[in-house]
Design goal:
35% helix, alpha+beta, 29% strand, 20 helices, 685 residues, six-stranded antiparallel β-sheet, seven-stranded mixed β-sheet
Amino acid sequence: LEGIGEFLEGLKAYAKAPEYPKEFSARVYKIARDPKGARLTYLKVTGGKLGVKDAVSYGQTEEKADQLRKYSGEKYRLADCVQAGEVCAVTGLTETMPGQGLGACRDTTVPVLEPVLSYRVLLPQGVNPAAFYGKLKQLEEEEPQMHPIWNEKLQEIHVQIMGPVQLEVLTRLIEDRFQVKAEFGQGSIVYKETIAKPVEGVGHFEPLRHYAEVHLLLEPADRGSGIQVFSDCSEDMLDLNWQRLIAAHIQEREHPGVLTGAAVTDMKCTIVAGRAHLKHTEGGDFRQATYRAIRQGLKSTECILLEPYYSFFLRLPAEVLGRAMGDLRQRFAVLQEPEFVSEQDREYAVLRGKAPVAVFQEYMGEIHAYAKGQETVVLELAGYDVCHNTEEVVQTCGYDSEADAENPTGSVFCSHGAGLYVAWDEVAQHMHLEYVWKKKPQPPKTALVSRERKKEKETLSDYELDKELQEIYAREFGMNKEAAEEQERRRWAKKRVSEAAPRKVRYDKKGEPIYPKKEVQEEFIIVDGYNIIFAWEELNELAKVNMDSARDRLKDILSNYQGYRGCRLLVVFDAYKTKGNLGKSETYHNIQIVYTRQDETADMYIEKTVHELGKRYRVTVATSDGLEQLTVLSMGALRISARELREEIERTAHEGYEEYLQKKMHSTDKSVTIENRKKEKRDRK
């Protein structure tokens, strides 16, 4: 203890003292319990002062500080008042949490690690699991990262934590606090579920003397966004107090999915309709209807299983880099380009990427073995993403959503004075309100083909390509290409006949008939940029040397072509593999260039654009991808292959030059002579 007093005096003399506000404020940094079980809230006073029996407000709660304790190790002394800048433990506050602000202090955003592993608690014989669950809930206040879960069906306790280290701490804490030697079963991954497509879920609860119906629009949301609640329901249909109650029921619990029973996340829930009864509706009725609406919606749409991912930093000797990259790819990791550093006359490689927690944890021992302890591994939770082995997990779990009596997927209707359970797929036939959200028509599903597959298709002959399209027509529409086109011709012929039928004719003041002007749609051409580059031989060769040059050359050719045609022209380039890419649109001379955003292919962008422009323009899509041709054809657009586009550009350029010569021949410019025309023709050749 030598010199400590002088050191503190020096701090007091030379360090600037903080200035605290006069109004009381404090920050909670820890929750604990003393040996007698009293709840302790550890806090630092950041403004004003706190006295015994003073009222402390936080959120919607106001409680009194019974005792102010100043601890030194396990011992403490009571204080009558605590000034700003001091720390103490307070008794009497029952709902405080770490990071919470008291008085004038605002809550802070405390980064909380989300647990990714679940362990079953194995208690000694004679310990009641249901009673012990309440004690673990007390520990959750002190360790917010620990989530105890009670399984009513199996009468078991499960805890969700980060890993083995936290498990050791929890084991010691349980033994010290409750004198119980608990063990834990094999750890399992904490999965989650979400939806892939929007759907309107319907929940109805109408046993005798009860009534509630809820319609929720469920939509996919961004990863990590959780459950978001909105309302798009008129107060004339459902009072605001009932809508608020529905929103509270959506957020009050984790709703189990229908694949494995895991918690549903990353979903927008919008209240679009609902109905209550003036006499028979109670608050609990809307709870039942809300839960059933979510479950019915999940059963009516496509669900996705999510698993936790690690973002990893791996530094290891360069000679084992190949082994590491091969192993990680086999474990479904997404890798960035490796980096190389030299330290102490030895070269090391650095790998960064993302991998599923389920496969990466068991791989840590192997890395340590073949890197001979010279590796450095840093792991960070990267959130949840699509599970790499969904079918295997679902089959292993064996969850039956329709047999889950605690979370029913169907609804309850009233029939002959008694409650009638209706399965989820029959609710639409019994519900009292109509669907609000109508599903928009979607283009036919097409398989996503890789760039290599596209290049393979572009090498097919016209006969082979048409033959493949005929097979697709037969599979999709039950007819071949000729039959489909013949059906289309008949439809247009029938339309022309109907248009040619006698109709009432209007006349002007001179007695001349007035005919309505026929609207001519403007032409819009959409070009799949990389598809054309790989299909044209000279651009393909140029792309092997420099892709930027190939793109610029294609843009120049199409810009020249647009100048002759006078149409609107859009070139779409794939940029979906570029991480963090938000997409870009630019104008190049007289044409528009679009680079798609991350996770959006050129095909997806073209289909979306055709759907938006089809009613206003006569759209033509230039691509040699057979599946894409089929999709745009079914949406009403014209198609043109890469070879046909090349011939069209050459023909248009030739016709444009001939028109230019004709104009010069009929001009009054005396300098235009036959010799000049012959010279220009030779130069053109």
